[in-house]
Amino acid sequence: MAREQLQVLDALDVAKTQLYHFTAIVIAGMGFFTDAYDLFSISLVTKLLGLASSVTGVALVGTLLGQLFFGWLGDKMGRKTVYGLTLILMILCSLASGLSFGSTPKGVMTTLCFFRFWLGFGIGGDYPLSATIMSEYANKKTRGAFIAAVFAMQGFGILTSGVVALVVSSAFDHANRAPSYVDNAAASTVPEADYIWRIVLMFGALPAAMTFYWRMKMPETARYTALVAKNAKQAAEDMARVLNVELEPEEEKLEKLAGKPSNSFGLFSKQFLQRHGLHLLGTTTTWFLLDIAFYSNNLFQKDIFTAIGWIPPAKEMNAVHEVYRVAKAQTLIALCSTVPGYWFTVFFIDIIGRFAIQLMGFFFMTVFMFALAIPYDHWTHRENRIGFVVMYSLTFFFANFGPNATTFVVPAEIFPARLRSTCHGISAAAGKAGAIVGAFGFLYAAQPKDVGKRDYTLIVLGCVNALGFVFTFLVPEPMGRSLEELSGENEDGEDEVEAAGESNTAATVPL
Question: How would you label 180-192 residue by residue, b for 16+ Cβ within 10 Å and e otherwise?
Fold first, then answer.
């Protein structure tokens, strides 16, 4: 049972939506815009790079390691301090990716892989830090929408990567006419095409650079300052400026709260296992399973569009025109399904809850995957292509109006402040492990040699989504509750056992 709460945290929980909320969304969201742009733009220029799988792979591995490292560091050094480091890394490595050098193509690719790894490392840090900062700034009534809005900027990043690739490739295609691969393989890739992937990758530095100043001006979150750094006076001063109210430091109450058993256990303790073990299992497994399907769809949609004839076979295009056609397809999918899906989550997450949205998303992703896979031959006929694209787009819509958003939101809400960034980083890293499986091992194992036969792949993806539906029952519903109530940080010691039992019950039943 909750007993008492610091005034500064109560003030945050009940604060009306103000300008600082939207400022925080934009500042944190632009980091995610950059994340998505950098991770997904690479799939648009694969034809120009050759060893695209290596470039994609090192970025995903870097992201996974960055999520673990910066998640842990965010709990040790503070959210704001580490937040600036991740942004600097993203800006510098985005620029450096486009300036990759070498005397041979292999040398250029080696340099590019090096910078893409460290770009991914910085991107990885943005996941736990952005989510944690937004959750700790938000009020409990609209917290889900604010965190989801930060994540929704990922949709605009994906959309922008398509638009930028579309504009750049179109300009180069008109300026440098080239024959198709089947007509003249050697001449189908003009030397000027080297500039296309460089421009597309370097553009990712721009949105991150635009928000660096404002990110550095953000005060540390009151929850970290008070509950982790144990500085009630600084927390009250920082939030008094943000909320435009007078707040008491309440050092004595903070000392009393800090001495409770609920505020002392560590990540590898029996108490954490009892209270949050199933929760962490739920957030990691659902994110892992979701990203197998999500990244498979995103990174390899070019092959699927080619298989159904929506994009001509590669041999019938030159390299630059292929970039244009793939970017056009990705832009349409992002505009019609990906971006709307994210914002449906923003609008409904604090109305119907995280649990319902995640369950619904996994369910419909499963249904549409099977609907595409079982009658697959039907969709390969020219007259049915539009139907295929609509069904395929709906899988993206329900991924984003579903688990792709909620797996990001929930880990930022249900763990204690001193472990919040770490646990979110662990959950996100599990997701990136799923992305690696989806982008490499899964597709090589599940996909037949014939590019025209994707039904086996889609069936396995449908089964993966069905597993995600099942594991969602391990994740509690945080809607409408304060972060301290969810994590048990304001509970008395004698309520530890009772709270742990309630927490595990919540893991199987939506609240």
Answer: bbeeeeeebbbee
- 108-116 long-range contacts, CB within 8 A, separation 24+: 109/49, 109/50, 109/51, 109/54, 109/55, 112/49, 112/55, 113/54, 113/55, 113/58, 114/58, 116/42, 116/55, 116/58, 116/59, 116/62
Distance CA 129, CA 478 (A): 19
- The answer to whether the CB of 486 falls within 8 A of the CB of 480 is no
User: Could you report the per-residue pLDDT of 106-146, keeping only the tens digit for each?
Assistant: 888 889 999 999 999 999 999 999 999 999 988 888 999 99
Q: How far apart are CA 379 and CA 504, in angstroms?
A: 44
Cβ atoms of 169 and 9 within 8 Å: the answer is no
CB neighbours of residue 4 within 10 Å: 13
What is the Cβ-side half-sphere exposure of residue 231, based on CA atoms within 13 angstroms?
A: 12
Give the domains, in start order, of the chain with CATH numbers. Answer: 7-506 (1.20.1250.20)
Does the pTM surpass 0.85? The reply is yes
Distances (CA, A) of 134 to 22, 130, 485: 10, 6, 17
Place of tokens 């220029």: 45
CA-wise closest residue to 447 among 308, 296, 298, 322:
296
| Lowest-confidence segment of 79-83, 288-292, 300-304, 490-494 by average pLDDT | 490-494
Residue 105's SS3 state is: helix
Give the single-character DSSP code of 224.
I
- pLDDT tens-place string over residues 468-479: 999 999 999 999
Nearest to 305 by CA among 295, 294, 316, 297: 297
What distance in Å separates the CA atoms of residue 166 and residue 173, rounded to the nearest whole number?
Answer: 10
Q: For Cα atoms 67, 223, 35, give the angle at the middle one, nearest 5 degrees.
A: 30
CA angle 123, 125, 131 (to 5 degrees): 105
